[in-house]
Amino acid sequence: MNHEKYDIKFPQGTSVLHRLTKEGNKKVLFLVHGYFEDGKIFYSNSGKGFAPFIVKEGYDVFICDLLGKGESKPLIARDFDHSQYEIITRDIPTYINKIREITGQTDISLGGHSWGGVVILAYMARFRDQNIKSIITFGSKRRIARKNLRKIIAINFGWTWYGNYLVKKYGYLPAAKMKMGNTDEPTKYYQQADIWVREKQWVDPEDGFNYHEKFNFTLPPLLFITGKGDKILGHPKDVKLLANEINATQLQYQVIGKRNGNKQNYDHINLLTHKDAPSDHFKIVLDFLEKFN
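Above: the chain sequence. Below: its structure as tokens.
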């Protein structure tokens, strides 16, 4: 497997676009990571993870490190100015255009983990890219609507109240330092995502774009997959809520857990990283992709 890297220049710095592939691979898949993560949620240097699995099956896989994350430079620090609006309206289109330039392929598939799935769906609502062949999301929810003690502690207190306190104090969300996740987050990105997590209406806080109203076109086939053991960040009911928001006609929704014949009740992270995943539900994702490639 070859691992190539491309520098993508933005006003805030340089984002790294990773390409994992092998000779002869033609089917193109672009993957976007979620919150408190970088591209390594999809791969490891030892060749494990979803991306290496799918490369072996003939896919040319691209993975971004969003600005300030992973191998992108500079890393997030005080007053690092990068918004969710920019990710949706500028960064994702730039990555996709670069991938099409590199590969010479117009038709590609998209995938996202957690919030990465939300921003690629938002991209679709704005740009209606007719050359996207299919979309897969892992544990992606837009709104956390569950009402229980775990949600109150983790989201109402930990994410919203404590998160807002931290960005005011530090000028960014120091998630790694506070052991909230693996990577830090810019203030604007955090604040704009926080609105979507809490609000029923799916409206962009920067320009008022109403996503609910704009999902009035034919989307490519979608696979929504999440783990039975995901109790908050990709709770099956919240994932289903997002699936219902986008008005898709070809949509497959699947909860991965022992009750459904799977090997584990996967959680938000090990849905992609567990050693059993390649021999378990990664095959479901592969079968879905193969239908449209």
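The chain has one domain: 2-143+209-291.
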